[in-house]
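Reopening: Integral membrane protein still failing for me.
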Amino acid sequence: MLIGMICSLGAALCFGTASVLQAVATRAVEPGSGSGVDAALFLRAARQWRYLLGLGLDGAGFVLQIIALRHVPIYVVGAALAASLAVTAVVASRLMAVRLSPAEWCAVGVVCLGLLMLGLSAGEEGSGTGSLALKLGLLAVAALVLLVGAVAGGLPDGPRALVLGLGSGTGFGVVEVSVRLVDSPWDFANPALYALLLGGAAGFLLLTSALARGSVTVATAGLVLGETIGPAVVGVVWLGDRTREGLTWLAVTGFAVAVAGSLALSRFGEPEPPSAPAAPLG
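Support: Ran it again with your exact input. Result attached.
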């Protein structure tokens, strides 16, 4: 349990810091075609060293996420990943001179309180292995995320950001659940393995496109909701995730508090670059 919580928080730290680095790189390149699934935008952003460093932190965060999902319930990991927005806010206030309002500092504290409640109440991860129908369903959802992303590219900026954010969060949610259903990376007969790969790729492409144009707050709010609520329900209903005896109320409250605090910080899904050029980091 302790290992799982530490890895969850470590993943949040990696993802939150990566967002600050990727923010500057994404906005520094041409916006591209406007499609919801714009691989060319990713390739252009990847030429920026900050984006590559952010990708490295994303990779480290993903490894920590996998370890965490092997030790604690999905709802704990999902809430911790949403809490990476609190990390982004704090890092942005230090590295990019972004000013946090008193209400936003309060939201950071609320997120921490929610995670503490989850840590105290969470039980062991469920022992469910998932049915074939669940694995195929995850693969279908991952494919649907790509389709929705392609269609969303033609929407006005407001709804486009929301749809792409929800789609991205759903893709990352597929990854969270699929990790629990894959025993070996060489299990090529397992549909959950392909759901994991497709869901991660779709989520990343949609998130990059969502942050390149439209409301960052709206896109990130959709991301938070998509990557927390659905996976938590699947973990409890189909995979047997539970809380400690008599502490279900504390887990539900902690989950709601952590997600609510993260939503209050959703503008930090991609913090705006500072008005003056930042000094090189090295």
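The first helix runs from residue 2 to 27. If you still see a failure, please send the error message rather than a screenshot.
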